[in-house]
Every structure is written in C-alpha cells, then in structure tokens.
Design brief:
This protein has about 180 residues and is mainly β. It folds into 2 domains: about 25 residues; about 150 residues, Porin. The chain is about 15% helix and about 50% strand. The protein has 2 helices and 10 strands.
C-alpha cells in the first residue's frame, strides 16, 4: 500500500473518531465500569480451537467448560477475575486477569479482558508453553437482577515465549450471577 493511501486512511480514521466523540446523545449512553454491580460468579461453555490448523498435532474443535469469580470494579473501572476451564480433550487452564465494562445503553455490556495463567494441553493442541495469555471480549445482556447472559470471544497464545506459538480461538456462552 502506498504512503499516500495509508495517510488518507489514517486521516479518515481520525475524522471518524472525532465524529463519534462529538455525537453527544450517543456518547451519553456509553459509560465505563459497573460500580453498582456486586462481585459475580460466571459459568459457561463453548468451543475451544474453533478454527483449527490441520498441520498442528492435537488440533480440532472441542468442547469447553469454564468457571470464574469476578471481583467487581476494584481498581476504578478495572475488575480483576480468576477462573479455570477444561476441554473435552483434557486441556486445563487456570488464570487470572483484568477486564472493564463498557456499558452500551442501559442493558448491553461489552467487557474486554486480558489474563495470564497455567495451561496444560491434555491430548489437544500443544500451545508451546505452560504460561499462556488470553485476550478477548464478552458481550452481555444485563437483567434487572444484575445477572448477565452473553457470548465471549477469546484468543490464547504464549506471546512467543515458547518453542512454538500456534494460538487458538474460543467462543463461549456465559451466565454471570451476582455473588452476595
């Protein structure tokens, strides 16, 4: 791509961002953090390695079950969490990380997250290291009782610290309930 085309795209992106930032009615409906929400327990299931590479041993989509404890907004709008998941091929991942809520209108919540933890692959795909990083986002509907139902999309990788770094994607459906 030429330098001129790159500059034009960057300029268009900046103008779009400025336009979005100056739209007052829409901006008033988006808030960060959920300070009124108590700590929560999340349970879910889904698919691990959703776009497998046939050249990697142990690859293939398999089921995933997860559980998390989410502490709520402890550090301003940042909410720490701990969790674990297992797959149908015997993989296990115990992790901890941080996320923050982006409240869209009154009921919809997007939560980007980042975590690090210990991974063992079982008979599934070897991700190249026991230390693995998970990044992604969850998109939820918040009910009146502060429970949430949503879908999460995640990428796991060792960030190049292992001999290999195939990375995998997972998709989950998550039910989050207030812990009181």
């Amino acid at each position: 791509m030429s330098l001129r085309r790159s500059a034009k795209r960057a300029g268009t992106g900046i103008l779009f961002a400025l336009g979005v930032a100056t739209v007052h009615p829409a901006a008033a409906q988006i808030t960060l953090g959920s300070p009124g929400d108590p700590p929560r327990i999340a349970i879910g299931g889904g698919a691990f390695d959703v776009n497998p590479d046939s050249k990697k041993p142990g690859n293939g989509t398999t089921g995933l079950a997860l559980g998390e404890f989410r502490f709520g907004d402890v550090l301003w709008v940042v909410a720490p969490f701990v969790g674990a998941f297992g797959t149908g091929k015997g993989a296990f991942y115990g992790y901890g990380g941080f996320g923050f809520d982006i409240n869209l209108f009154e009921r919809f919540v997007a939560t980007p997250t980042a975590a690090v933890g210990y991974f063992t692959h079982g008979t599934g795909i070897d991700l190249g290291a026991h230390t693995e990083f998970r990044t992604g986002a969850e998109f939820d509907y918040r009910f009146d009782n502060l429970s949430r139902l949503g879908v999460g999309f995640y990428h796991m990788s060792n960030a190049g610290i292992g001999k290999q770094n195939p990375g995998v994607q997972s998709v989950t459906v998550v039910l989050t309930m207030p812990f009181r």
